[in-house]
Amino acid sequence: MAAKRKRRPIALRRDRSKTASVADRLPVNQRRFPFSYFALVLAGGIIVRVVVFAYVGYFNNDNHLVVIDHIARHWTLPRANQFDQAYHPPLYYLLAAPLLRLGGLVAVQALSLIFSIATLVVIAGLLRRLPWTDERIRPWCLALVAFHPQFILFSLFISNDTLAIFLGTLIFDQTRRAQVSPSFSNVVMLGIWLGLGLLTKAVVLVFVLPLVFFVWLLGRRHALLNSQVISRLALFLVVVSVLGCYKYVESLILFGNPTVSNLDFGDWIGEQQPTWIGAYSLLDFNLLKLIRDSVISTSTVHSYPLMIYGSFWYSLIPESTFQGNLISPFNRVGSMIYIAAFCPTFLMLVGATRIGMAALGIAPSAGPEVGMQGRSRLDYESILLLIFSLNLLLIVAVGWKYDVWSVFQGRLLFPSYFALLLAFNAGMEWAESSRLRINVVRGFMSALIALFLVYILVEVWLAGTYPVNPLRMDHVPFKIDMNAR
């Protein structure tokens, strides 16, 4: 007797009146691939951070150790006018001071490693919780922050940048939690994270007005009474003010300026002037200049876009013991990064434009979502991009006011980096509408991630082969002729 043929399994679906989708017909192991890639990227990002931590020096070009050491010795906060860096809000220094007493500089930098890994984990969790992010796009979004060398470095220095980046990410995470569940406790928690951010670094000031608007918008979206909206706004502002205003009030009393910085002191400013040479400084985006000179030079120092672009994606300004950007031919990696990074930059611009036009009612939503989910997505992305836009505007405004090239650093955008990931996601959705377009994008993105890893491997090899003083803080070995063109 002939053996009975086994019946082929029927694709299961919730609505049996409809034809099974492509995703339904895929084997389970194939459908899990995007998550496997996502988990692999997350694990790789953690490993890279640990490796870089083992080889990079303690400091960038700013001496934050002097504040930590003062608190560790005297257990008192320095006055804003006492010495350099004392004008910064104190939260990071308060957390680092006990570690300096207990375990020295290694323990303090280990705190930065913890913040760096925690930032990556929070971003990964938030990407997975956003229902509108496609599983095929999430690994690319996560890969940007997982392997981006500048983002990694500035989250590992002994510097308040590492805590500011972490708290900026937590603010965005809590913003989404409050949107999903606009309870009193979530609004208070949002105020706490924002207040702690203000107690860490002044750049977080750009978060305040958009989040005030967000709290008001939550009340309107959920049809709360005016009294309830006002009470939530009042509570939010009280929490933020109580936690975050200390250093700004002290600086206002001592200097007449609540946001005083090292730009208000010192003779070094004259060495970096003038950067402004008219409207050309705002419009010059000749990428060939960066490709030719991967480190800051007379050809790039007068261009605001090139300075921000270059220092965001690569070590345009020497700022660590990783010195491969000063050594030929290793600095050619930077030139290639500038080329490949144009792809995600372009996609971010496309995505931000689509979100902005949708928010203004000029165009439909950036994604396919409709109804409540579409409106929720638009609200969230618009608020985060508003924060990023204010962050960018702050850099340009301060740089123009003081006319100093070192202001135009991409690291100052890192606390609001997640907003760029949302813009990148929207840009990737646009790219996926064309097979040719998405294949080109995947090729450029793969090349960029590979170049990031090559850059890190080269720097680690150089640091191991030719070790330098890990206490070094002055990483720029040359001066720029500001009058040259």
Q: In brief, what are we looking at here?
A:
The chain is mainly α. It has helices at about 20-25, 30, 35-55, 65-75, 90-130, 140-145, 150-155, 160-180, 185-200, 210-220, 225-245, 245-255, 280-285, 285-290, 305-315, 330-340, 340-360, 370-400, 415-430, 435-465.
Describe this structure in words.
There is one protein chain. It contains 20 helices and no strands. The chain is mainly alpha-helical and 485 residues long. The protein has one domain (34-256, 273-465). The longest helix has 39 residues, at 91-129. Mean pLDDT is 88; it is low at 8-31.
How would the blueprint of this fold be written?
Layout: H1 22-25, H2 28-31, H3 33-55, H4 65-74, H5 91-129, H6 138-147, H7 149-154, H8 160-180, H9 184-198, H10 208-221, H11 226-244, H12 246-255, H13 280-283, H14 287-292, H15 304-313, H16 332-340, H17 342-359, H18 371-402, H19 417-431, H20 435-465
Please describe the structure with a list of short key phrases separated by commas or semicolons.
485 residues, mainly alpha, 20 helices
Number of strands: 0
Largest sheet: none
Q: What share of residues are in beta strands?
A: under 5%
Q: How many structural domains in the coordinates?
A: 1
Helix content: 55-70%
Radius of gyration, rounded?
24 Å
The averaged pLDDT comes out at 88
Order of H and E elements: HHHHHHHHHHHHHHHHHHHH
Q: What does the overall shape look like? A: globular
Number of discrete helical segments: 20
End-to-end distance, in Å? 91 Å
State the secondary-structure class: mainly alpha
Low-confidence stretches: 8-31
